[in-house]
Amino acid sequence: MKAAIIGGGINGLASAWALTQAGHEVTLFERDGLMGETSSASTKLLHGGLRYLEHGQVRLVYESLQERNWWLRQAPDLTHPLRLVVPVYRTSSRPRWKLKAGLWLYDRLAGRDRIGSHQWLGPGELTELAADLDATGLKGGYAFYDGQMDDYRLGLWVADQVRSLGGAIHEDEAVERVDTEGNVVTEAGSYRFDAVANVAGPWAEALNERSGVPCGYHLDLIRGSHLLFEGEPGAGFLLESPRDGRAFFSLPYQGRTLVGTTEVRQDLDQPLACSEAERDYLLEAHNHYFREQRGAGDIVEAFAGVRPLIRSSEDPSRVSREYKLERRGRLVTVYGGKWTTARRLGEKVAQALKA
Ligand SMILES: Cc1cc2nc3c(=O)[nH]c(=O)nc-3n(C[C@H](O)[C@H](O)[C@H](O)COP(=O)(O)OP(=O)(O)OC[C@H]3O[C@@H](n4cnc5c(N)ncnc54)[C@H](O)[C@@H]3O)c2cc1C
Asked: How far does residue 89's CA lie from ligand 1's centre (Å)?
């Protein structure tokens, strides 16, 4: 089968990888450079997503935990297990028993090859781990494990797998139109394929719309921003914002501290960048927990990405991170999809194109 993939983010690359592994002739079109959008603007976590358990998304968490473990095994040079701590304060909205129940389930869902079990740490153990952590009202906290990755380089590693299996990757070639007959029109010319997958992430729905292809699902585009400071914290932290109780991370990442993220609706025609309001929100949230107060002048880098979520709730935190595939004739469109689950998504795209 001659197949085209539109989009060189992790989901497009993983789809191309699954198809080349199955022996198909694959051409991937990326309008700019590979891994230049959402897939390199993530929180860098290979994770099940502890907080999705609160919303009852057990199947998604189970699949994500299996995939987390798979990436850690496949690419040990670009990934590693990361110890995360959830501190419990007298003022925390989530009680200790609730966290304990969630982490117990998280460990069970990770299965036998989980990377470590959760454990309770007293206040002394926590401040030993991170001397900077504000100990006022601190009761202790739970430590648990997830994975961390260099998202950009891990995506390029997947691209190398695609090329080594004979897949063709056309960078700087934007797709202008698709149809359900296997036709793809790019800036450079027209092509015909047996099957086409639109895996353009946040831009997937817009591409179908301008091609006159109806969409059975609609995307909710939610921007998320991160800040980077010099110096690594002693551990990764999963914290709740004092302003609205939203979960956010403060993580060690390549010698720096990565703080994020936010949830703000984004239009595709607006510039994609961390706003001043998001910057202040993240600084306030981080400074609430750590004694060394950071200001705008301490930010060494800020970046933003847009999540392609399937529209399902007014509250962005509650919008499901599940993905859906829709087939019309020879065209399969992908809506949504986390980084961690890209391999599974890619396998499903390959199956859907063959069907
Ligand atoms: C702030 C934030 C934090 C996140 N953190 C995590 C995390 O820690 N762990 C996790 O598992 N997930 C995380 N996610 C989710 C994850 O990053 C995304 O769901 C995933 O990267 C989406 O990948 P994609 O390939 O679908 O989209 P993208 O990476 O956006 O790729 C789509 C590609 O399509 C290209 N394209 C668009 N239109 C065209 C066209 N017409 N022709 C050719 N090419 C086109 C774009 O240039 C782009 O490269 C996070 C998301 C955000 C926004």
From this structure: 35
CB-based contact 8:192 (threshold 8 Å):
no
Which residue's entry shows tokens 């539109």?
A: 6
What domain count does the chain have?
2
Q: Which atom of ligand 1 is nearest to the CA of 224?
A: 1
- Per-residue pLDDT, 316: 67
Q: At 297, which CATH number?
A: 3.30.9.10
CA of 225, closest atom in ligand 1: 1
Q: What is the spatial distance between Cα 252 and Cα 148, in angstroms, rounded to a whole number? A: 10
DSSP state of 133: B
Q: DSSP letters of 277-342?
A: HHHHHHHHHHHHHBSS---GGGEEEEEEEEEEEES--SSGGGS----EEEEETTEEEEE---STTH
DSSP string across 208-235: HHHHT---SS-EEEEEEEEEEEES--SS
Pocket of ligand 1 (CB under 6 A): 6-12, 29-32, 36-39, 41-45, 47, 174-175, 199-203, 207, 224, 261, 305-308, 337-340
Nearest to 189 by CA among 16, 19, 27, 15: 27
Structural domain span for residue 164: 2-39+152-218+322-354
CATH number for the domain harbouring residue 22: 3.50.50.60
Are both 160 and 303 inside the same structural domain?
Answer: no
φ, ψ for residue 266 (rounded to 5)? -130, 135
295 in a structural domain? yes
In a domain, 47, yes or no: no
Determine which residue's CA is closest to atom 50 belonging to ligand 1. 42
Q: Mean pLDDT, 10 residues at a time, over the chain (355 residues)?
A: 98 98 98 98 96 89 96 97 96 92 95 88 93 94 97 98 98 98 97 98 98 96 97 93 95 97 94 97 97 96 96 71 94 96 98 92
Position 280, amino acid: D
Q: How far apart are CA 174 and CA 269, in angstroms?
A: 16
